[in-house]
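DM from R.C. (forwarded with permission)

"hey, sorry to bug you on a friday — could you get me a structure for this? deadline for the figure draft is monday and I only need the backbone to look sensible"
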Amino acid sequence: MDILLSRSAAERLGGAIANVLGDTAYRIVTPDEPHRGRADIAFISRDVTGRSTKTDLTAELQAFYKVLRESPRLAWVHTHSSGADRPIFPELLQRGVTVTTSSGANAGVVAQSALGGMLALARRFSRLYEAQHRHAWEPLLGEASPSDLAGQNALIVGYGPIGQRLARLLGVLEMNVTVVRRESGAGGAAGAETSGTVRTISFGQLDDALPHTDWLILACPLTPLTTRLIDARRIASLPSRAYLVNVARGEVVAQSALIEALARGALAGAWLDVFEREPLDAASPLWDLPNVLISPHTAGHSDSYYDAVGRIWLDNLARWQRGAPLVNAVPPQFAVV
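My reply, with the result:
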């Protein structure tokens, strides 16, 4: 069995791989070796994607993809990312290759980042930072006073590992939390359900919830269902006091409609970690809007990420060896080209 890894991943995980596979014969193959076309399984680690985006690929990532495409025996690919919305993954799925993700590896960190963005917007940190730059003592009083988050309505789209952690955090802040999830995940029920302090609704009920939302938080995977889910019509349904937080994927939101709403004050503000096209164009109006905070797709980055992803992949490797179902397997119907 040939396992395709980067040199960095091979050095980091080599001993653990040996422990997992035991007496199973295997060989580690790296993209820079002349063993093209011989990978049976592959692990796309963070160092492989590097600073690549969906549309701008580094030479290292292209070399890795080349080996994947030239490996007729390739049966399984695991990615460090929580989603499988890069074009390579539908291509692999169409070949019958199993694709798994590292969903959940950085869920806690992403939830912390989303909460940080919310607090920065709610407490008007950018206004305080600007005053600090001017050496100006300007307490947030009167109309400038921030609104208390307690009692506000948070609508979380997506109830996977990130959404679940966010719901707990916002519950601690005494917010009214509603989550939107696929109907199949709630047993196909048509009505809203309440579990503890969290209210659950289906995607079919999203339009009814938007006019009552103070915080729209996107934490869903990119699928045919969620692509441009928050379009111009739904943005217009939000009240002008509402904020939008996106730690999902940029394509979930109609970005031009969002910019227009933010620019004319139809929305109170936004914290954005992802964008329709990355890197975000330097000419984008989003950079200069005073009610927008931008994060360069870094909400999930932390010093614990590599180890967390490694544990998920090694667990799946053990499952693969004994023929057990893999964790975080991507259903072909959820692949987005």
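R.C.: lifesaver. The chain is about 35% helix and 15% strand.
me: no worries. Confidence is low (pLDDT under 50) at residues 184-190.
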